[in-house]
Amino acid sequence: MSGTAPTNAMGKADQMQSGLTRVLQNLPALRYFHTVALTGSFRAAAEKLNIAASAVNRHVRQLEAAIGLPLFERRSRALTLTDAGETLLRRVTRILDEVAMTGEELADLHRLSPGHVRIGAHDALAREMLPHLILSFASHDPHVRFTIRTGRAPELLAHLGGGRLDMVFVYDAPTDINIRVVREYALETCAVMRHDHPLASRDFVTLHDCSAYPLALPDDAAYLNAFRKRLAMCEPSGCLPFLTTNSFQIMRDFAARSDLVSLQTPLPAQLCPRNPALSYVRVAEPLARYSLMGCCIMTDDGLSDACRGFLDHGLGILDGALA
């Protein structure tokens, strides 16, 4: 008989150890026990956890059964922790603190995980608008990487549809069932010229005024055709542009060195600093006053967190500058 007592004691210890292992793996039950211990009652714990008091009581009893010891002394008006309850509370508090810290660290890693944003844009928008949007975004989220592709609207929209770009910024985006125009902004047409040009001091000019000087126009077909039609109405004899190019910067370079007038839709100075040697005069023509700049994504909107974050950030800046 004397030889069996240690064996029975060891068996109980092993059983308790096994039960404790199961307890520590039951995180919800530990949370319930912890809340009951802190609030002092099953009812208060249930209200804090937003579950039924009977469910809280059941989980605590399951813990007690697994451990083989009572955790609370249940009195008529209050709960008091037993020695086992005090011991478990100390351990559980540490466990839950570690779980919370781990969750915060993982959340930080998720927020800081490198993302990749692929943007397509008309050359002028890529040069003049994207640096401001990207650098301001990178100042608070420096781990995101960017790829920029420039080109004409049809080419960029084809890359968007093929999954090679996440978003595009283009002029006069065409209607497409698979592409969603998230935002459109009306950019005012200006005549850009040297600050000492004869037209530079005016509040506005007409196309007829501009046609007296060499003209530079964007070579985008829709944009150019609209101006040509209007110019034909102003000048029946016809007026062909001296220069066409897909670069607003090239047009401004020519304007700064000659009497040439460049017709373009510049961005506000707060988005793109302007050359102080040039004047920007509003064009007062109903048919050629504005051009629409659109931000496009795919209709299914399968954007990553990094893309969505940049898009929201960029549109917020553009709304403030162009709305």
UniProtKB/TrEMBL annotation:
Protein keywords: DNA-binding, Transcription, Transcription regulation
Gene3D superfamilies: 3.40.190.290, Winged helix-like DNA-binding domain superfamily/Winged helix DNA-binding domain
Record keyword S-adenosyl-L-methionine present: no
Source organism, top-level taxon: Bacteria
HTH lysR-type domain segment(s): 25-82
GO CC annotations, alphabetized: cytosol
Pfam family, one: HTH_1
GO molecular function, one term: DNA binding
InterPro entries (alphabetical): HTH-type_LysR_regulators, LysR_HTH_N, LysR_subst-bd, WH-like_DNA-bd_sf, WH_DNA-bd_sf
Family to which the UniProt record says this protein belongs: Belongs to the LysR transcriptional regulatory family.
PANTHER family per record: HTH-TYPE TRANSCRIPTIONAL REGULATOR YBHD
Protein name, UniProt field: Transcriptional regulator LysR
Organism: Komagataeibacter xylinus NBRC 13693
